[in-house]
Design brief:
single chain; 155 residues; mainly beta; Lipocalin; 10-stranded antiparallel beta barrel; 52% strand
Length: 155
């Protein structure tokens, strides 16, 4: 009976690689902003919750937070961690985003509006998988440069 169960599990992983990929990726899950450990430039949006989940053979990233005026924001990205641009929905400051896996714990990202890169950064998950640090730099919609370091705790 155990052999059948193991065989079935391996077969499912083979045919639905995303689910198995997702289970092994430390980025997957829900992340909450740790404001006490974060340094966000004044006038910037605050991304309070970020969720990474499998979406077929891709990853869906859902971001919720507040803009500079305290109004709620929500945007979504679905794509692969292959460094290619994929569409963002719900974000008036960007329309494309790419993520590239650097190593098991690190992602590099690029944010674009039109053909212009507006932000770049890295996401590093701690070795224990319980926290992550997101560093980003770029130019906001008013042309002002920013640099943010945001700390997140896994939920």
């Amino acid at each position: 009976m155990k052999i059948k169960t193991i065989g079935l599990t391996l077969g499912l992983c083979f045919f639905s690689g995303a689910a198995c990929f997702a289970a092994d990726d430390p980025n997957m899950g829900t992340w909450k902003l740790n404001e006490a450990k974060s340094k966000t430039a004044s006038g910037m949006e605050k991304l309070t919750t970020v969720v990474y989940e499998a979406a077929g053979d891709q990853v869906k990233v859902t971001i919720d937070g507040t803009d500079a005026n305290g109004k709620p924001i929500h945007n979504e990205w679905t794509g692969k961690f292959d460094g290619k641009d994929y569409a963002v929905t719900g974000d008036p400051t960007s329309d494309m985003r790419s993520y590239k896996k650097i190593d098991a714990q690190t992602l590099k990202f690029t944010v674009k509006k039109g053909d212009k890169t507006t932000a770049t950064g890295r996401i590093v998950v701690a070795a224990d998988g319980k926290s992550r640090t997101v560093t980003a730099k770029g130019t906001d919609e008013h042309g002002k440069q920013f640099k943010n370091t945001s700390a997140y705790d896994k939920q």
